[in-house]
Amino acid sequence: MSRFRIHQFRAGAPDKFNLIYDKFLIKMYKHDNQNLVDWEDSKIVNYANCGDYMLPADEGDIRKCNNLKGGTTKVQSHILLPNTGSYVIDYNEFVPKDSQFYVNLKKETGIIYEDYSIFKNIDEFLKFYKEGTIWIPLDIAIKTVTGSGSRGVILNTKDPNRLRLGGKYCTIRHFNDPMMLSFIDFARKENCRIMLQSFIPLDGLTKINVDFVIRNGKLLTYKWDVVDPSAVFTNWNWLYVLRNKYTDSVMKSLTKYIIGCGIKNAIMNFEAFSDNEQVTHLVEMNWRYSNSMFEWGAFDIDPLVCYLTNTAVPIPMGKYKLNRFWTAGSYDKLENYDTK
């Protein structure tokens, strides 16, 4: 019998379809097209009280936990989102991109978070945006303050170095632009504010994805992944794991800050640009299990096992060519395959 039972949400997405896990330790129940917010409180409570864990895929589920009826310490600890040791973190204290966590980030860790301005609501944003005019200056990021991925981010730019990054990166010409309409629709559904933020400088910097696991107030392991420059928003077939004195110092200071904010347990991620030696500019924190964690499977390492068993497992450093088809596997493991 498996030691841990986990309910995985949005399990049909390609990056979540076949997470690597130890079948002797974990039995995974997959729920496609669902988030935790779609479940009745009583269902969540019943599963947790039976010893089952839940693996959300969206920061919006943090709000659900904050308002969960019957959300006892045991129930909250069985939801695999960052928690204080007793309860899932308060959404407003951490997730919004103008939260105090971001405000104090540079002072506490040295990680740079670009200057921004905030509209107090969507209507205030829209009254400045008039059809047929471009009032938003070029080279500005338009973001919803909630965790959103590309759904809540538009870069207003003509810079080809930005345009190559993929995702919602283009110049907004008028309000009826489908991209802007989709952005506003998402902001309304999330009932969140909108911010304008300065661009991160690209010169000398590369995109990084950093997954990490904190358990009982200690950093168990992290993967500092330098992203393929030709596919900077997602890694599909290339992996460069880096670890040096600088990355260790960043993770030490970030972990100290996170723990100092009251978080004792977390499986999460952040995206940033860095020279990997002296400076790091944060894009955003992802307060949940990240889609880049599929890469751990290439080393037969499972962040869920690390977390649930409180086991520190270092991730190998180096460059790897990967094959990703529902799960990750290293080309090095293929017989007679020349990786040079």
3D structure, described in words:
By secondary structure, the chain is an alpha+beta fold. The chain folds into three domains: 4-81; 93-112 and 203-333, ATP-grasp fold, B domain (D-amino Acid Aminotransferase, Chain A, domain 1, 2-Layer Sandwich), CATH 3.30.470; 116-198, no CATH class. The protein has helices spanning 41-49, 60-66, 73-77, 91-94, 100-103, 105-109, 122-128, 160-163, 178-190, 245-260, 303-309, and strands spanning 4-9, 26-31, 53-55, 116-119, 140-144, 153-156, 194-198, 206-215, 218-226, 238-241, 266-274, 280-286, 318-324, 328-330. The strands form four sheets. A four-stranded antiparallel beta sheet has the order 4-7-5-6. The chain has a four-stranded antiparallel beta sheet with strand order 9-8-11-12, sandwiched between helices. The radius of gyration is 20 Å and the shape is globular.
Features:
340 residues; alpha+beta; D-amino Acid Aminotransferase, Chain A, domain 1; 3 domains; four-stranded antiparallel beta sheet; globular
Annotate the secondary structure layout:
Blueprint: E1 4-9, E2 26-31, H1 41-49, E3 53-55, H2 60-66, H3 73-77, H4 91-94, H5 100-103, H6 105-109, E4 116-119, H7 122-128, E5 140-144, E6 153-156, H8 160-163, H9 178-190, E7 194-198, E8 206-215, E9 218-226, E10 238-241, H10 245-260, E11 266-274, E12 280-286, H11 303-309, E13 318-324, E14 328-330
Number of domains: 3
Enumerate how many helices there are, as a single number. Answer: 11
Superfamily (CATH H level) name of the largest domain: ATP-grasp fold, B domain
Could you list the spans in which at least 5 consecutive residues all have pLDDT below 50? Answer: none
What oligomeric state do the depicted chains represent?
A: single chain
The overall pLDDT average reads: 85
Helix share bin: 10-25%
CATH architecture group name of the largest domain: 2-Layer Sandwich
User: What is the structural class?
Assistant: alpha+beta
Instruction: Report the biggest beta sheet as strand number plus sense, adding barrel if it closes.
Output: 4 strands, antiparallel
Measured distance between first and last alpha carbons: 43 Å
What is the number of beta strands? Answer: 14
| Rg calc | 20 Å
Instruction: Return the CATH topology of the largest domain.
Output: D-amino Acid Aminotransferase, Chain A, domain 1
Order of helices and strands: EEHEHHHHHEHEEHHEEEEHEEHEE
Shape: globular
Quote the beta fraction.
15-25%
In the CATH scheme, the class of the largest domain would be Alpha Beta
Largest sheet: spatial strand order: 4-7-5-6
